[in-house]
Write a structure and sequence with these properties.
single chain, mainly beta, 2 domains, three-stranded antiparallel β-sheet, 1 helix, 6% helix
Length: 104
């Protein structure tokens, strides 16, 4: 069940200025605090999205990251074993092996 945050509009509650409540998505938003009875307002909370931070995390998730080094020359900073670290635009043998990372 989702957890929603509520802000007290006035007064001080033992639970603090902001508190969390586990509610069904179909439940009506609270109008008053269940702890102190003061009016509250539902907040829009930020979500927790995990994004890869390092090149090795990108590689482990199946991504390929190319960094431009020169005109038509790219460095594969997520190269796997057997792959070229340098990719040349006009040489397909230096391209990353996508069959190793993409499956049906």
């Amino acid at each position: 069940m989702p957890i929603y945050e509520y802000l007290h509009l006035k007064g001080i509650c033992p639970k603090g200025e902001v508190f969390e409540v586990e509610q069904s998505i179909n439940d009506e938003p609270l109008a008053t605090c269940p702890y102190c009875g003061e009016p509250v307002r539902k907040l829009i909370s930020s979500t927790n999205i995990s994004t890869p931070k390092t090149n090795s995390e990108l590689r482990d998730m199946g991504f390929t990251k190319l960094v431009r080094r020169d005109d038509g020359v790219y460095e594969n900073v997520t190269a796997r074993d057997g792959e070229s670290k340098v990719m040349h635009r006009d040489r397909p043998d230096t391209y990353p092996n996508l069959k190793r990372t993409i499956s049906d």
